[in-house]
Amino acid sequence: MSLHYGQKVIEKDGFPTFAIAILAIIAIVSIHIVGYDQGQLFSLVQGNEAYDTMWLHELTHDMRHAAGFPCH
User: Fold this and answer.
1) pLDDT in tens, 60-69
2) Strand, coil or helix: what is 68?
3) SS3 (DSSP) at 10
4) CA trace torsion 31, 33, 35, 37 (10° rounding)
5) Which of 30, 33, 55, 57 is deepest in the core (most CB within 10 A)?
């Protein structure tokens, strides 16, 4: 599609494939973290204590069950 404004020609692609690819990668990584994290993510900061507290697991517990992830 071309838009003409005076002497300038502005061309636009109809579909932002790069933005959709980035969003798809973010979605896949997020689902993996929420679905399978048992303290690994926060263990980078908290150390072994993160495996006992499992903050991310506890915060997303009901959502995990609704999405079909077994966790206990």
Assistant:
1) 888 888 888 8
2) coil
3) strand
4) 180
5) 57
pLDDT of residue 22: 96
Which sequence spans correspond to the domains of the chain?
16-67
Closest CA to 71 of 42, 27, 60: 60
Which pair of structure tokens corresponds to residue 37? 């994290």
What phi, psi does 12 have (nearest 5°)?
-120, 140
Write the DSSP symbol of residue 42.
Answer: H
For residue 47, what is the DSSP state? T
Tokens of 64: 């995990």
Instruction: Tell me which residue of 9, 21, 18 sits closest to 1, measured CA to CA.
Output: 9
